[in-house]
Design brief:
Layout: H1 11-38, H2 44-81, H3 84-109, H4 113-121, H5 126-141, H6 143-158, H7 162-186, H8 191-213, H9 232-264, H10 268-284, H11 286-304, H12 308-341, H13 348-367, H14 369-382, H15 385-410, H16 416-439
Helix pairs in contact: 1-2, 1-7, 1-8, 1-10, 1-11, 2-3, 2-5, 2-6, 2-9, 2-10, 2-11, 3-6, 5-8, 6-8, 7-8, 9-15, 10-13, 11-12, 11-14, 12-13, 12-14, 14-16, 15-16
Length: 448
């Protein structure tokens, strides 16, 4: 145990972990953002096609991330407990899960991708439909590589080696943006070129991380991964976190897809405006997403050591950091909103509608988002995932989905209603999670 006057992580430890994760979060967002911005030269239909595929893709990526989170929680708690052998064995089993789930998903979805688009988004314009298929194929092929990469980066974060994941993200962005420039503009492949560039970047990231984690000097090295052991016990521990997290994320994104189909019914302009507002949401939460990842490692290791005092201390510290850094990002963006939106190539009428929507989004991000999305990572790290599933599922379907359909169908509102419903969802989640943390019932939950 740590001395009562000390904490498990020094200020230097926190900087070394969190700063690269924030940069990594920025770089990860840039991959998807680069696709949207760089295809904007092909017109609003291309932007809309990429946006619709990204909506589906984010659902599947959430599943990979959920299992990576489950693995990271188990590994971090074993490391905090001092059981390095179990931590290393858990690392291998995380990769097994990632490979199995992602290959099955790709094999099932690839042949029926067009039917999925029709089912989810209905009668979209033929030009938009063509662009969605062009972009979707290479994105689907990239999933196994992305899933393995997600698992390997989760292991690196558990080792507190977040600088490495930042550098690999930088490499992936260079490949993605360079590939976009060549394949979209020079070769003229449009959204298909954007998808191929994303595929190449994910293959590269996966291979680089795999080579690094094969190093025998790594605390969580995966040498001998083809020989096992395949441990049902350890996998069950990961699934106790991963399945509820995956269901929560899946419900979240299924709701988003249902809302996206509602947006699609409002026309191509509404789809494009929603995509741009979504990017502003991503900009605003760059630091928050990095802190979310750090919280899994920090709180997980504290809980593995049964250090409840530090669990509480770092929860308060990281929440304060998430709130303050989000404000620092949002305030300049509030001023620069029209200039930033100008990069997306929207028509004049769409631009006028997008500016106030993006500005309101920024305000909600620094006032509500950290409570709705940073705080639950503390609960995940200590194993209190069933409450998160129940709270997020209820809030998502009642507020975001139900509220959006009510405002659009019953009250005749436009794309702005989608975001109003989402902010109500954020507020309710934040209240539920804050109440759970304060009451302290999470102390009774154990993972290992």
């Amino acid at each position: 145990m740590t001395n009562m006057n000390e904490h498990m992580f020094s200020a230097r430890d926190l900087r070394a972990l969190i700063i690269p994760l924030i940069a990594d979060s920025l770089l990860s967002i840039l991959i998807g953002m680069a696709d949207t911005i760089m295809v904007s030269g092909c017109g609003e239909a291309a932007v809309s096609g990429v946006s619709l595929v990204d909506t589906i893709s984010n659902l599947l990526i959430t599943v990979f991330s959920a299992f990576a989170t489950g693995g990271a929680v188990v590994v971090s708690q074993y490391l905090g407990h001092g059981d390095n052998d179990k931590a290393k064995e858990s690392a291998k089993n995380l990769i097994y899960i990632s490979i199995i789930i992602s290959v099955i998903m790709t094999a099932v979805i690839l042949p029926i991708r067009s039917s999925i688009i029709d089912l989810l988004f209905g009668a979209i314009e033929p030009e938009v439909k063509g662009y969605t298929d062009d972009y979707f194929v290479p994105i689907l092929i990239s999933y196994p590589f992305l899933a393995i990469y997600s698992g390997l980066t989760a292991l690196s974060r558990s080792e507190r080696k977040s600088f490495r994941t930042m550098m690999v993200s930088l490499l992936m962005n260079a490949i993605n943006i360079g590939g976009n420039a060549i394949l979209i503009y020079a070769v003229g492949l449009g959204p298909r070129g954007a998808g191929i560039a994303s595929l190449l970047s994910r293959v590269a990231g996966c291979l680089v991380m795999f080579i690094m984690m094969m190093n025998p000097k790594e605390a969580l090295n995966i040498r001998g991964i083809t020989k096992g052991p395949f441990s049902p016990y350890l996998i069950s521990r990961m699934l106790r976190i991963g399945i509820p997290s995956g269901l929560e994320g899946a419900a979240f994104h299924i709701g988003k897809i249902m809302v996206q189909s509602l947006i699609a019914s409002l026309g191509t302009s509404a789809i494009a405006i929603n995509a741009v507002t979504g990017n502003f949401n991503a900009y605003a939460n760059i630091t928050g997403n990095g802190i979310n990842l750090a919280m899994i490692t920090i709180i997980g290791q504290c809980r593995g050591q049964d250090n409840i005092r530090d669990v509480k201390y770092y929860t308060k510290l990281l929440m304060a950091l998430s709130l303050s850094t989000t404000v620092l990002i949002c305030l300049p963006l509030l001023i620069a909103t029209p200039a930033v939106i100008g990069f997306y190539g929207l028509e004049e009428s769409s631009l006028a509608e997008a500016v106030p929507m993006c500005r309101l989004c920024l305000v909600m991000c620094f006032s509500l988002w950290p409570f709705a999305f940073t705080l639950p990572n503390m609960l995940k790290a200590v194993g209190d995932v069933r409450f998160i599933l129940l709270a997020s599922f209820s809030s998502m379907w009642i507020c975001r989905v139900g509220g959006a359909y009510l405002m659009v169908r019953a009250f005749g509102m436009g794309v702005e209603a989608i975001w109003y419903a989402m902010y109500i969802d954020w507020a309710l989640r934040g209240i539920l999670y804050l109440q759970r943390v304060i009451r302290g019932k999470w102390i009774t939950h154990r993972v290992i």
